[in-house]
Design brief:
alpha+beta; Jelly Rolls; four-stranded antiparallel β-sheet
Length: 135
């Protein structure tokens, strides 16, 4: 009888050790997978390229543009002779950056650092035809 109790206790202890080990390993693997997924999301967001967009307008215009976190190249072309001002605003209305404020024709490339992915507001004040190309 004493031997049976020893074997039963041994089997119970082994089952407990195996159960704890399985629970620990599966929990560790889940956390590791979540950690890797979070790293991939951050990495993808910070290294993503801006998608290309081109538009052409005449006169003053306010346009919503989407920017991806990272570097954006914006080319502005204006062939008129009047004042030409282009600014990008955050969604809360605060100025994010002034791209250009000049008088007369311009063919200018600006490289900006976008702090976070989201919608921004491009505001252009001018007369005449102008275009914007984002790369």
């Amino acid at each position: 009888m004493a031997n049976i109790l020893k074997y039963a206790a041994f089997i119970l202890v082994m089952m407990l050790i195996i159960t704890i080990g399985v629970m620990y390993y599966s929990n560790d693997k889940t956390q590791n997978t979540e950690h890797q997924s979070a790293n991939k999301t951050v990495q993808n967001e910070s290294t993503s390229e801006q998608y290309k967009i081109f538009f052409n307008f005449n006169g003053d215009e306010t346009q919503i543009i989407d920017l991806i976190k990272g570097t954006a190249e914006i080319i502005l072309v204006y062939e008129g002779t009047s004042e030409f001002t282009a600014r990008i605003f955050n969604t809360d209305g605060t100025l994010f950056t002034e791209l250009v404020d000049t008088h007369g024709p311009i063919n200018d490339k600006q490289i900006i650092s976008v702090p976070k992915t989201g919608a921004y507001l491009l505001e252009v004040k001018t007369t005449g035809e102008w275009s914007m190309n984002r790369k």
